[in-house]
Amino acid sequence: xxxxxxxxxxxxxxxxxxxxxxxxxxxxxxxxxxxxxxxxxxxxxxxxxxxxxxxxxxxxxxxxxxxxxxxxxxxxxxxxxxxxxxxxxxxxxxxxxxxxxxxxxxxxxxxxxxxxxxxxxxxxxxxxxxxxxxxxxxxxxxxxxxxxxxxxxxxxxxxxxxxxxxxxxxxxxxxxxxxxxxxxxxxxxxxxxxxxxxxxxxxxxxxxxxxxxxxxxxxx
Length: 220
Prior knowledge:
Layout: E1 3-7, E2 13-17, E3 22-23, H1 30-43, E4 50-56, H2 62-74, E5 77-83, H3 90-96, H4 98-101, H5 108-116, E6 123-124, E7 129-134, E8 147-152, H6 166-175, E9 176-184, H7 189-197, E10 201-206, E11 213-218
Helix pairs in contact: 1-2
């Protein structure tokens, strides 16, 4: 499928899949969405000083980069796993210019190491941030009580409805430890009901720019 680089509403860039008319991040603002959904409502919400994060849809690496930057401000220890079935090329990463957009020159080496490092091998990027990426479909996840926080950033249900089902959210529920948290930009009623059906307690929260609501799901 043809992929283009486009500029979003906050001036940051994202990848657009032309055939699907779908983007990796919000057209209203890629960076704003990442901060609002995954940092403000996820990372900052969770109280663990040392936290294990699973990202469903590593993609461009924007969420991982911002998590690295924000955790570095207070020395929070992060063990980060990103799952991706269709990796982004280094050429596309360069065109996205996230290091420049975020004024994150200090993290350039670590960001590109995320994309260049071997699949399936854990890499220590800084003294407080460990990174692992796995190349596989989300349906293949079989972890149990392994993560404290999930960034659920799959493509939308309009184009990949199979990723927003009870089957997938049951895998997410099992992968989380007790009191684990899942955050996503999505807010559809069918998504919320699928989460609730597998045991999540679901909150509807104010969404990022361009979206009225988002969801946060708790394993209690």
